[in-house]
């Protein structure tokens, strides 16, 4: 059985590329004998005449993670496959038509960047550059150009204080380094950054930078915004508020989309009034969803359930009862409308935009 990724909804063709980065100024916290090294996945508006082939939906590490997880649920690895993505591999970026806002993306604990393809492709098809970061030694498996595969060294059951005190600072440093490298590639610093796909460096709008993330990536988003004023707005997809941002608050807008069974009710940052926060905060939850609904597992597990390869109990625990097409559509609509409002690409404010988008599944999350 082959599982298809929902097509992006925007007018632009999409390209995807991998970006190999090495931070010469930072030792890897998990392997101090090496410099910090990252693999970054980039989705961007592409030249629609570029004949480059369609890329895989997920890079090898992401696919390995999915096969491993589904095998634990009794799904044979040879019973399913993923269709190609809707993005052309290493295609030329679209030239002309203005510069593109940038959106950094941080995955959840143990997750790899390919698990956000449905969201990333859609945003790129509407004129955004999505920069997704594999956090090395924390992502399930990351392949580097020299053939190495670096695997996670972090237990999935790590306590919140470990996530807050150890992992979030590493992730924030990763995100800020990637943003530095984008500035270098765009010629806005004296450092010579690694090359990007043709035309893309000229099309980056470093004055319009947002960030979003799932689970611990949502935590990373909030803390990175706190630490780096270059990021104008963020979206937290079902993650706790950790680190100093939980007490200091933010002066910039943060959209917070929670699952229907989110454990963060009553936790700092999710209560109705974030006392120290001066920026706009929009906390919502999507009825019928679960934690992994905010990843491509929403699509994959739903399709496996339809084919009878997972039962309803497994499906509902993994991705909830919401229709998968509806869930993906809501996530895409809210992400796009929110960032369009933040960056002046629509005629309403973020708060007004969210009100206009009101749907039965979207509920206050207090």
Descriptive account of the structure:
The protein has 366 residues and is an alpha/beta fold. The chain has one domain (2-364): Alpha/Beta hydrolase fold, catalytic domain (Rossmann fold). 31% of the residues lie in helices and 24% in strands. It has ten helices and 14 strands. The protein has helices at 60-72, 117-125, 160-185, 200-203, 216-227, 245-248, 297-306, 312-319, 324-342, 350-356; strands spanning 2-3, 13-28, 31-46, 81-82, 87-89, 100-106, 129-134, 141-143, 149-151, 204-214, 233-237, 254-259, 281-286, 362-364. Helix 2 (117-125) links the parallel strand 6 (100-106) and strand 7. The longest helix is centred in the middle third of the chain and has 26 residues, at 160-185. The radius of gyration is 19 Å and the shape is globular. The chain starts with a strand and ends with a strand. The model has no long low-confidence stretch (mean pLDDT 92).
Instruction: For the largest sheet, list the strands in their spatial order.
Output: 5-2-3-7-6-10-11-12-13-14
Rg from Cα:
19 Å
Major sheet: 10 strands, mixed
User: CATH homologous superfamily, by name?
Assistant: Alpha/Beta hydrolase fold, catalytic domain
End-to-end CA span: 41 Å
Overall average residue pLDDT: 92
Task: Tell me the name of the CATH class.
Answer: Alpha Beta
Low-confidence stretches at least 5 residues in length (pLDDT < 50)? none
The H/E string reads: EEEHEEEHEEEHHEHEHEEHHHHE
Per DSSP, the total helix count is 10
CATH architecture: 3-Layer(aba) Sandwich
Sum up the overall morphology in one term: globular
| The number of domains | 1
Oligomer: single chain
Question: What fraction, in percent, of the residue positions are helical?
Answer: 25-40%
In what range is the share of β-strand residues?
15-25%
CATH level-3 fold name: Rossmann fold
Total beta-strand segments: 14
Broad structural category: alpha/beta
